[in-house]
Amino acid sequence: MRTSVLVLAVWLAGAAPGPGGAGAVETSLVPLPRPGTVAVARAPVRPPSELAVTASLRPLVRPASLDVTAAAAPAPGNLGFRRWIEGFRPRARAAGITEATLDRAFAGVRYNTDVIQRDRNQAEFTKAIWDYLDSAVSPTRVRNGRAAAEEWSRTLAAIEARYGVEKEVVAAIWGLESAYGTFRGKTPIIGALATLAHDGRRAEFFEAELVAALKILQAGDVAPADMTGSWAGAMGHTQFMPTSYLAHAQDFNGDGRRDIWGDNPADALASTAAYLKHFGWTKGQPWGVEVRLPEGFDYALSGERVKKPVAFWTRAGVRDMAGKPVPDHGRASILLPAGARGAAFMIFDNFHVIERYNPADAYVIGVGHLADRIAGGPPIRADWPRGDRPLRFSERQELQERLNAAGFQTFGVDGIIGPNTIAAIKAFQGREGMIPDGYASLQVLNRLR
Q1: Which stretch of 18-22, 76-80, 220-224, 443-447 has the lowest confidence by average pLDDT?
Q2: What is the rounded CA–CA span in Å between residue 359 and residue 267?
Q3: How does 166-194 read in b/e, with b if 16+ C-beta sit within 10 Å?
Q4: Dihedral, CA of residue 398, residue 403, residue 404 and residue 408, to nearest 10
Q5: How crowded is residue 107: how many other Cβ atoms within 10 Å of its Cβ?
Q6: How far apart are CA 101 and CA 218, in angstroms?
């Protein structure tokens, strides 16, 4: 599984490596990576309504080591936390952080029990990809996206001209990460990262992010009081983690600061475009195209690992939704995020560039489709298997265990339906005479039982 730039989450906000880190805001939709059925979440929160699209829709990558028992958060005294900070100071100074920066950054910082509870409390929620997309690309989010793109049209056009990333794609990431800047997160970043580093579960990762955050403060890009974001350290309009900020943030408006936190989104939007460009964005290439598969299509050829020239797919009878051959944008794969009974997409290299921002298929499709809709494109036209119940996390683990026991290796039991598990499902389906679409369904699990 690739490491993401940002992170994902269905009903939760969590933490993972990437530009962004965890839930950008208090409420976040989170599909798991490469979901056939997607989900996971923290404790129940109020579901976003059609009109309430002010929350981030970033799905969150579940770390392989995640304990989903939702154990109560530990509550060590603030004295132990202060001792940890004193022990951290020499390591920070060795990384180039001055004593003055440390004093300024840690003034008034306290252990944040809410952050630990959010990190621990990954409750057992599920959300299917069609439900995720219903929110991610709702009429209201599309309408707000078009309005935001119009309001910032000159800035977005200039960003597209400089970085070669379509303005609608940048706007779509902005929309999913912070609802076009309306929910950037209010958690003090230094305190949150220090708490998570002190906690120890992923100490090395969060300490590295904390050092990066201190470097940002030392450079003068933001004051400690203004460095706010999600509980897990993601910041600004498009939710960059501190290490990604150091590597990719841009001073687009030329004021001497790389300000991704303020009301003006120019630097944040340019930083997102720079990030995508760095990882190989190709202007003019779609992320993907919704397609119709012919009767008798060989579903064993589906999946991200099978890349063929567009001419190959055309000869196989694959057509766009208007019945025409798909234009040649390079080698492509056929993606079936909900199996043979759901929508099918021909995906190109730009799909994988968005994956560098967040590796969940649901997130990538959400960004790509929202960008298409902002640009005036149509909704997804195929039906989804809406009667299917997404597998629970424990069921996804059971699926992997049973596949391994049956001789179909998933190379791990982590509850994440990634490429290895999809390949194992396809092989099992083929043996059983089922459609080998790699869809992690209850039907497949019951057959394994």
Answers
A1: 18-22
A2: 24
A3: bbbbbbbbbbbbbbbbebbbebbbbbbbb
A4: -160
A5: 10
A6: 6
Query: How do residues 387-402 score in pLDDT, each as one tens digit?
Result: 999 999 899 999 999 9
The tally of CA atoms less than 13 A away on the side-chain side of residue 267 is 22
pLDDT at 78: 79
- For residue 219, the tally of other CB atoms under 10 A from its CB is 12
Query: Average pLDDT for residues 364-388, to the nearest whole number?
Result: 97
Domain boundaries defined on the chain = 1-281, 288-374, 393-448
Active site residue 177: yes
Task: Yes or no: say if 90 and 207 are a contact pair by the CB < 8 Å rule.
Answer: no
Strand partners, 22: 15
* pLDDT tens-digit series, residues 75-99: 445 789 999 999 999 999 999 999 9
The residue annotated as part of the active site, out of 86, 151, 160, 177, is 177
pTM for the full model?
A: 0.84
Helix (H, G, I), strand (E, B) or coil at 394: helix
Q: Report which secondary-structure segment, H or E, holds 311.
A: helix 310-315
Give exposure, 312-330, as e/b (b: 16+ Cβ within 10 Å): ebeeeebbeeeeeebeebe
Q: What is the pLDDT of residues 34-68, one digit of tens each?
A: 333 333 222 222 233 333 333 444 443 333 333 33
Q: What span, in angstroms and rounded, lies between the C-alpha atoms of 189 and 240?
A: 12
Q: 228: part of which helix (H) or strand (E)? A: strand 228-229
The rounded percent of the chain whose pLDDT value lies above 70 is: 82
- Residues 6 or more apart whose CB falls under 8 angstroms from that of 43 comprise 12, 70, 121, 123
First to last CA, the chain: 27
Please provide the size of the chain in residues: 449
pLDDT greater than 50 at residue 326: yes
Enumerate residues 6+ apart whose C-beta is below 8 A from 319. 291, 292, 294, 325, 326
For residue 75, count CB atoms less than 10 angstroms from its CB and return exposed for 0-12, middle for 13-18, buried for 19 or more. Answer: exposed
Rounded Cα distance between 221 and 228, Å, is 13
